[in-house]
Amino acid sequence: MNQHLHIITLGVRDFETSRKFYAETLGWKISRPQEDIAFFQVGGVVLAIYPRELLAEDAMVSPDGSGFAGFTLAHNAQSESEVDEIIKDLKSKGVKIVKEPQKVFWGGYSSYFADPDDYRWEVAYNPFFEFDENENLKLD
Q1: Residues of the chain with CATH 3.10.180.10
Q2: Whole-prediction pTM
Q3: Nearest of 11, 12, 47 to residue 26 by alpha carbon
Q4: In this structure, which CATH number among 2.40.440.10, 3.10.180.10, 3.40.640.10, 3.40.710.10 belongs to the domain 1-65?
Q5: How far apart (Å, rounded) are the C-alpha atoms in residues 16 and 113?
Q6: Per-residue pLDDT of the chain (140 residues; tens, 9 = 90+)
């Protein structure tokens, strides 16, 4: 299998609430609109939201679950002040901020917010990362 990640799909409890959060609150554009799934082109990867029950059925698992999901999603900013600006904007829109922007142990600066399903998004500035001409992280 080649080293690519194409789509991350989040199972959501209330599709319409989540659709509005990503499209209206975050201001992201929906690609290929459909009735019960939304795709967002996020750099070289696609983020999809889909009803939790249907995603669990498709993956042949129980939709029940609680607590930390064991992963986070991240948006990397190009400065500490950009992190602050993003979090300030999200706060003004009523988004739940779970960790205020702060310097962190690995030498960067980060904050976390939660989407309507409590998926945790980190907004971080990492002084050790570079971006390419398309604003994608360039690790090599």
Answers
A1: 1-65, 66-135
A2: 0.84
A3: 47
A4: 3.10.180.10
A5: 19
A6: 778 788 999 999 999 999 999 999 999 999 988 899 999 999 889 999 999 999 988 777 888 877 777 789 999 999 999 999 999 999 999 999 999 999 999 899 999 999 999 899 999 999 999 989 988 888 87
